[in-house]
Amino acid sequence: MHAEKLQHEFEPKIVAFVCTWCTYAGADLAGTSRMQYPANVRVLKFPCTGRIDPVFILRAFQKGADGVLVSGCHPGDCHYMAGNFHARRRFAAFRALLGFVGVDLERLQFSWVSAAEGGKWVEVVTELTEKVRSMGPMKEFKALENEEQWSGALNTPELREAFESIT
Ligand code: FES
Fold it and tell me: Residue ranges of the F420-non-reducing hydrogenase iron-sulfur subunit D domain (predicted)?
């Protein structure tokens, strides 16, 4: 089979960690407004992006995600004051670490999407899906499947169920 054909058949799994107040509501708006966007995205919502531990991102890659999006309220709009700034700083440091261990950073994206920005949600998700589709499957972290050494913080019923749904 041609490589071109294989590439075309590949449908990436994208995991989006979003804050419930802004981006989740924006994604919901896109849905209720019947905007079209790729069905590759599995949305996991959290009270605030400040609650999203970088280990969740590692876990998503380990469980089969080919791309990860972290998205929350715009600067100044976080319902917990500065949760999104903390998230952004943590994310920047973590991203550099992923780059250091050889992960293509194009697979990981951070964005701000408000509750009123259904259109922006569609743009962000479409762009990331297309980029990751052209990159092919993410294989690097699947080798960790047998090296389960995650903290107890990840072992909540909610996260177990969420991660099961992307495999
Ligand atoms: S409440 Fe949305 S990022 Fe903090």
Answer: 14-136
* Residue 117 near residue 77 (C-beta atoms within 8 A): no
Residues having CB within 6 Å of any atom of ligand 1? 19, 21-22, 48-50, 72-73, 78-80, 83-84
Total domains present in the chain? 1
- Tell me the pLDDT of the chain averaged across its residues: 83
What's the CA-to-centroid distance between 144 and ligand 1, angstroms?
A: 30
**Chain Cα centroid distance, residue 74:** 17
CATH number at residue 128: 3.40.50
**Ligand 1 centroid distance, CA of 85 (Å):** 9
CA of 84 to the centre of ligand 1 (A): 6
Residue 41 lies in a domain: yes
Distances (CA, A) of 47 to 78, 93, 142: 10, 22, 28
pLDDT tens digits, residue range 104-122? Answer: 889 999 999 999 999 999 9
Across the range 21-27, mean pLDDT stands at 95
At 153, the amino acid letter reads A
DSSP secondary structure letter of residue 71: E
Q: Which of the given ranges, 15-24, 58-67, 82-91, 152-161, has the highest pLDDT on average? A: 15-24
* Higher per-residue pLDDT: 13 or 89: 13
* Domain membership of residue 61 as a residue range: 10-164
Residue 125 counted as domain residue: yes
